[in-house]
Design goal:
The complex is a heterodimer of chains A (219) and B (282).
Chain A lengths: L1 E12 L2 E13 L4 E6 L5 H9 L6 E6 L3 E5 L11 H11 L8 H8 L14 H14 L4 E5 L7 H14 L4 E5 L3 H7 L2 E6 L2 E5 L2 H14 L1
Chain B lengths: L10 H6 L9 H24 L8 H19 L10 H22 L17 H29 L9 H28 L2 H16 L11 H7 L3 H14 L9 H25 L4
Helix pairs in contact in B: 2-5, 3-4, 3-5, 4-5, 4-6, 4-7, 4-9, 6-9, 6-10, 9-10
Classes of the chains: A alpha/beta (219), B mainly alpha (282).
Chain lengths: 219, 282
């Protein structure tokens, strides 16, 4: 279970603190699939980083009673000067697992071929997404945090992600940020809409999207 | 704005009830931290030195070349007129000491930015980035100091230290000073850009005053009293006394150096904690 307790977050700006979240409370059970919706700048990625523990809330706290992945996003989590293999080594070392047995899996899933031994800075965003996804599957988390990275990519990548996440790891929790309404609708049982510092939680996707579209157009 | 059909469920009520946050035990935390620092250290070696030519050997070859060049220069300039000490040992102890404490702040100032991506992993903290870099600097300077001493000793250009324990203690005090200063400046630099700008001229000015190129006993009495307020001067004097023994008259107050180090450490750790709370991984 993950629990947000009275979570507040604000960022300093030149015009004073800018509030992103005001007193949010939420529980995410083991195995639950949660979609996060919100317009640009509503705080979706911030929410994912707070859930992961990479960033600290201004007040309140996040309780993690299961192992939670790092945010799988386009940027972050890797050193772009290093090769794919070096990043695999680093990730395995900080999570305390042996990297040598994981090379084959990463090679096969990411389909990077010789590029696995080249620095990340020359990768395309699709290649980065494949590597990021493969590396996070190497560590067995109870809960995966996915910021946009899965919903995009080509059909083949999409199919492989689906097999890894929704078939092989159907019992895990997922928290997904996506602009792809159909993807979220198909995969999530709970939808959180972020708007104006508040979070509204829905179990019916139609109500959620209705609210989301109103929120977008009101501002 | 319309009211949402269904707001945060039972969570609100549950949240108000006091519930203990899951906390790692101190021992488990240390295991994780040791893992992270080791991983950062290896990563740092690859990004800094690469796998080309001599690779990670640059770690101590670079400071060795510096010290070697300075030793030759000082020898050529007959800088030993400031003391009766053998010039090679004088230069090696002096310049190695400077490299040890002066490079540490330089390595920590601005070190958070290039590592922000790695802070997507919750176990990677600012303090881990700092500690891994400090450890690397310490290793480089120490291996360089030991290697040069042994090399010059085999060529009979200098003698081995008279009191190895005292040299070690002096070296560790200098290390502590360098680490503490680096922690404070590294953390402050995240908040105030001016720190980075000021550090370079400051490091440049402080270098000739740091006791590397002179011994305190050669100064006039009034100068001696003031110069010993610089904590690294005391530590170098102590180290040299260990190295040369009775051949040199040393002036130091290691209690004072320890007190300054302790103060800098406390301030550095406190500031590091503050910036850790604010860091936004990218």
């Amino acid at each position: 279970m993950i629990r947000l307790v009275n979570l507040c977050k604000s960022y300093p700006t030149s015009q004073g603190p800018h509030e992103i979240f005001r007193n949010l409370n939420l529980e995410i059970a083991r195995g639950e699939k949660v979609g996060i919706l919100g317009r640009n700048g509503a705080g979706k990625s911030t929410m994912i980083r707070l859930l992961s523990g990479a960033e600290q809330p201004t007040s309140g706290h996040v309780e993690r009673h299961m192992s939670v992945s790092w945010p799988l996003a386009f940027g972050g989590a890797f050193q772009s000067a290093l090769t794919g293999i070096d990043n695999l080594r680093f990730i395995c070392r900080i999570y305390g697992i042996e990297w040598r047995d994981k090379i084959d899996y990463v090679q096969e899933f990411s389909e990077l071929g010789p590029y696995l031994r080249e620095p990340l800075r020359i990768y395309s965003s699709g290649m980065r997404a494949r590597l990021a996804f493969a590396l996070s599957m190497v560590i067995e988390f109870d809960c995966f945090l996915i910021d946009e990275v899965v919903a995009v990519g080509d059909a083949r990548f999409h199919e492989k992600c689906h097999a890894e996440l929704f078939e092989k790891r159907a019992d895990r929790s997922l928290i997904i940020v996506s602009h792809d309404a159909n993807y979220v609708r198909d995969h999530c049982s709970k939808l959180c809409v972020l708007s104006e510092g508040e979070m509204s939680v829905f179990t019916d996707p139609d109500e959620a999207f209705d609210f989301y579209h109103k929120a977008i157009h009101l501002q | 704005m319309t009211t949402p059909a269904m707001t945060t469920p039972a969570a609100t009520a549950a949240a108000t009830a006091a519930s203990p946050r899951p906390q790692l035990s101190l021992a488990a935390g240390l295991v994780v931290q040791q893992r992270v620092i080791a991983a950062l250290l290896l990563r740092e070696i690859i990004t800094r030195y690469g796998r080309h030519n001599i690779g990670f050997l640059w770690l101590f070859v670079e400071p060795m070349l510096f010290t070697l060049a300075v030793t030759l220069l000082w020898g050529a300039l007959k800088l030993n007129h400031v003391s009766s000490l053998p010039i090679t040992a004088f230069a090696v102890t002096g310049y190695s000491s400077i490299l040890l404490w002066r490079n540490m702040p330089g390595r920590l100032i601005g070190s958070v930015g290039p590592n922000l991506a790695l802070m997507y992993h919750r176990q990677v903290k600012v303090i881990d980035v700092f500690l891994s870099r400090l450890l690397l600097e310490f290793m480089g300077a120490t291996i360089s100091f030991i290697t040069l001493t042994l090399v010059f000793w085999t060529f009979d250009w200098m003698k081995l230290p008279e009191d190895l324990l005292q040299v070690t203690l002096g070296w560790l005090m200098l290390t502590w000073f360098g680490c503490a200063l680096a922690l404070l400046l590294g953390a402050l630099a995240e908040e105030y850009e001016v720190i980075e700008k000021l550090w370079h001229p400051f490091a440049y000015i402080i270098m000739p005053l740091s006791g590397a190129g002179f011994i305190v006993d050669s100064l006039p009495k009034v100068g001696q009293d003031y110069i010993l307020y610089l904590p690294m001067v005391d530590a170098i004097e102590y180290l040299r006394e260990g190295f040369f023994g009775s051949a040199v008259v040393s002036h130091y107050d290691m209690g004072y150096t320890a007190a300054v180090n302790l103060l800098l450490t406390a301030m550095g750790l406190a500031k590091t904690r503050v910036i850790s709370q604010k860091v936004v991984p990218e």
